[in-house]
Model the fold of this input.
Amino acid sequence: MLAALSGGVDSAVAAARAVDAGHDVVGVHMALSRNRDPFRTGSRGCCSIEDASDARRAADVLGIPFYVWDLADRFEETVVADFLAEYAAGRTPNPCVRCNEHVKFATLLERAVALGFDAVCTGHYARLVPGPDGAPELHRARDLAKDQSYVLAVAGPDRLRRAIFPLGEVASKQDVRAEAAARGLGLSAKPDSYDICFVADGDTAGFLRRRLGERPGEIRDEAGDVVGHHDGAYRFTVGQRRGLRLGRPAPDGRPRYVLDVVPATNTVVVGPAEALDVRRVAASDAVWFGPAPGEPVRCAAQVRAHGAALPGRAWATADGGVVVELDEPLRGVAAGQSLVLYAGTRVLAHATVRAAHRATAVGAAG
Amino acid sequence: MSPGAPLPGAEVYLDHAATTPVRPAALAALTEVAGRVGNPSSTHGPGRAARRTVEEARELVADRLGAHPTEVVLTGGGTEADNLAVCGLYWARTAADPRRRRVVVSAVEHHAVLDPARWLAERAGAELVLLPVDAAGRVEPAALEAELAAHGDETALVSVMWANNEVGTVQPVAEVAHLARAHGVPVHADAVQAVGQVPVDLAASGLDALTVSAHKVGGPVGVGALLLRRDVAVAPVLHGGGQERGVRSGTVPAALAAAFAAALDAATADLGGTTARLAVLRDRLVAGVLAAVPDAVVRGAWPPGGGDAPARLPANAHVTIPGCDSEALLFLLDRHGIAASAGSACRAGVQQPSHVLSAMGVPDADSRGALRLTLGWISTDADVDALLAVIGDVVARARAASAVR
Done:
C-alpha cells in the first residue's frame, strides 16, 4: 500500500494505522512545486522542503521506505492552471477538489497501481463503507468538524475503491495529535493547514493579479449603472462583500454584494443580499455513487467545503448533469463550485455548479 | 500485493560513484586513531604522535598520486577541495594580474566546480566560460585552444574534471594542462571519480591542482585533499589557525587522514588488476541491460576503451531508457533491494535535470530515463546477475507507471 505523506500530522498517523493493520506500506511525498521554499511559512501545509523532510522523518519513525514523487508538472497543468482559468472565466474554483480529481486520486493512484500497489492511503477525514453492490460508499467523517467528504466526492466510487482513509472514524483532531505524540511522530504540534497550498502567504487576490495581470473594468448595479471600478473581475467571487470599494453608496444605504462576474464584458455586478438567494442549482459532470436516480430524490445539498447541507430534491439530467431544487433559499452560489449531494452521512453525487437560479426566478420545472 | 518485499537496505549495491563501502583497513585506522588524544599542531607528546600520523598519511597520499608531501592540502572532502581550487586560484591569480578574470570550466563539471565558478561570476567579477563537450561528454581540446588563443592573457584558471561522475567519460586532462600552462594559466582537475579507476599522477599530468575525496575510494566521508603544486599560489577559503600551508585552516583530523591514506593505499595497490576486473563486470552489465532493453542508449564514451588510458571509467555504466522516468526505475530497483542512481543531483528528493546529458546534446525527454549503475571494490558477478534478473520487468513496469499522466 502506498501512503501519501504530506509532512503533516494527519497523513503520518493514517500511515501509522495502515502499518498497524498489517499492510506493507511505502511512504510517498508528492512534490507539487518546482521552486520550493526551504521552510514552511504560515498555514501552508505541504509545499516546502521542510514539509518533505517532516514526511521523511515520519516514514523513518514508522520504519517504512520513503520516496518523493515529482508531480509538479501535473499539478501545475491540472490544478493551478484550472484555478487561474476558472477565475478568469468568472467562476469560483475549488483547487483541493481538482487536486483530488486530477492528482491524488488520478495520477498518484494510477501510477501506484502501475507500480504494483493495491491502494493509496491518505490522511483525509472521511469514511469508506462497503456498499450492497460491493462498490464503496463515501460517508462523512465521524468528526464532522474535520469532514472532507465534500472535496473527496469528485473521485467517485471507481477510484475510491483503491483508497483507504484510516482517520474517518477518529473522534477529533485532538485524538490524532495525541496519537502522533504517543507514536513519537514529531509532528504533533504542527499547525493545521487550511490556505490554498500554492498561494504563498494566503493572498489569493495578489496571486491572481501576478498570474493574470491587471484587467481594469466596471462594477455595475442590477440596473446597469456604473457604481465603481475594479482592476480585475477575476478577483471577485459571487457573494463577496469586502473589497468592492464602491464610489457610490446604494440608494437604500444597505450593503451590496457581488451577484455576478461577467468575464465577456469584464464586469462585476453588485446588489443587495437577498438577490443572492438561490432556489435551484444546475451542475454538470455528475459522478454518482451508485446508479443515477431515474426520478427526483430527497437529499441535502452542500456547495462549500465548510458550508451547511440544505434539504431539497435533486434529479439527474439527460446530459450527465444534476439539478437540485432547495426547500429554502441558499445564499451565494457561484459557478465552478462543487455541489455534493448527501443522504444522511452518505454521499450521493458530486457535480460542478454551472448556473444558480435566483430565488425570484424559480420556475415550475421538475 | 505491494511490489517486492520491504528490505532494511540494499542487498545489491550499484551506486559506488555516490559513495563506496569503507574498506576494512580504513575502518581499522579510523577507529584506532580516533581513540587517541592529540592535536597535530601541539608540541607535546600526544600532539607529536598525532602529527606523525597525519604526516605519514600525507606521505602515503602524495606517493600514490604522484605528488610531494608538501603538495597535499587536506580538506573536509572533495567539494571543499574544488571550492578551494576554483576560488583560491581565481583570487590569487586576479590579485597578481587584475586582467585575468576569465574562469574556464567544462560544461559537464560537478556542481562543486560549476557553482563556485558561477558564484565568482555573480559576486566577484569573474567571467565564466563553459567549454563545450562532444556527444560522449568529452571536452574538445580545440575549443580550449581557441579560447586561450583569444583570451589566454585574461584567463585566471582552467578546470576540467579528470572523469565525469555521471557518464564516466575520461577527459583529456594532459592536453588541457599542456594548453593552459602554455598560456601561464593555472589548471585544476576534479579527480574524485578517477582515483582508484585510472592512473592519477599530479606530476605526470602537468596539472597545478587536483581534487581527491576519501569516501569514493573506501575511506570515510568528511576528508579529502587538494593536491597543489608547490609553486602555485592559492588564496585561502577557510581562515584561522594557518594549518595546511596556510591555505586551509582548521585542526587536521588525524583519524580521518589515516583512514583516507589506508583506503587510498588499498584502492591503488593493484590498479591494473582492479581496472581489468571492473571493466569485465561493467561490460557484462551493459551487454545484459542492452539485451533486456534493446532500445536503451548507452551514454558517455562507448566503446569504453581499456588499459591505462580508457575513454571511460571501468566502473561506470550509464544508460537512458526511452519512456521511463528515473524516479520509477529507481523506486522499483530499490524494492528489489538494488541501489542505483539517476546520476544527476537530487534536491529534496526530486531528481533535477542533468546538465551533463544536456551538454552532451541528449534531449530532455531522453534524460528523464537516465540510469547510472556504478561498480566498486565489493562488486561481484552476483551483483550484475541480480540486476540483469530484474531489469526487463522493472523497465516494463516503470514504463507503465511513467505513461500515467
Q: What stands out?
A: The radius of gyration of chain B is 21 Å. The interface with chain A takes residues 1-3, 5-6, 327-328, 331-332, 334-335, 348-351, 397-398, 400-401, 403-405 of chain B (CB under 8 Å). Residues 55 and 105 of chain B are 32 Å apart (CA to CA). Chain B has two domains: 12-22+270-403, 24-268.
